[in-house]
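HUMAN: Forgive my ignorance: could you write out one protein's sequence and backbone structure tokens?

ASSISTANT:
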Amino acid sequence: MLGIIEALINGILMGSIYGLTAVGLTLIFGVMKVINFAHGSILMVGMFAAYWFVILTGWNPYFAIPVVVPLLFWFGYYMQSFIIKPIFEAEKDVREPITVIIVTTGIWYVLDNLALMIFGAEFRVAKTSVTGQVFEFYEMYFLLPKVIGAGITMVCGIYLYWFLKHSRMGKAIRATSLDREAASLMGIKQAKIYNVAFGLGSACCGMAACVLIPFYYVYPTVGVPFDIKAFIIVVLGGLGSIPGAILGGIIVGIIENVGAQFMAATWTELLLYGVFLFVLLVKPSGLFGQKHDY
């Protein structure tokens, strides 16, 4: 019984980090109405940035957050501005331009292969002051980096939710997500909002990258499994819903960790996809899905 409780808590810890990655994806979809297939590759860029920060400075990886998160924000901001924006302008009358999905798929392949060319295919690990440290609680053991990462994730999710609900920019983002034309008529610059939304989604990847570095390997295709899980999570939680993304991530983490106590990893993956298909059949809009995304 204690082992199941331990697996459950470990699932919540890892699932919250999955949720932070998915928050960025669901934010971009909620505003732009397109799915960013390069999301996992942006996470990979953030992980390499955090890895080299640790290697070159020797500092704790959490000190990389003030560097990597703004770096990823501007990376996403200008990617949207210079690569994706022209597609939107060419298809401005289309509600959900399919060409953007194709472009983000191309960005995914370009980023992964650039990383492969520059850094090679080997798996790298950043040995930090918290790597391998264990937190003990009532004869249960949890990796300290996961505990810290889950705490950072929750704070980040709460702050982002507050930002979207109460800040001036957040209200402009929500207005644009609800009705692009009406928001433009109110003086909101649609192109700038798209840039900021894409930047915020990428910044979430940067935050997730910094908390993953102490216990997760870094390699050129590290973003692929996170990308797949992020898509499952946003569907489970509801497209465009930030609380849904966090909850969906926790559900995925629990299924992975608790399921592994009773079955092989391949069957755990099958169970995860089974839950995913069940939610699609029963409630296609997701657990927090509603008419408007925010």
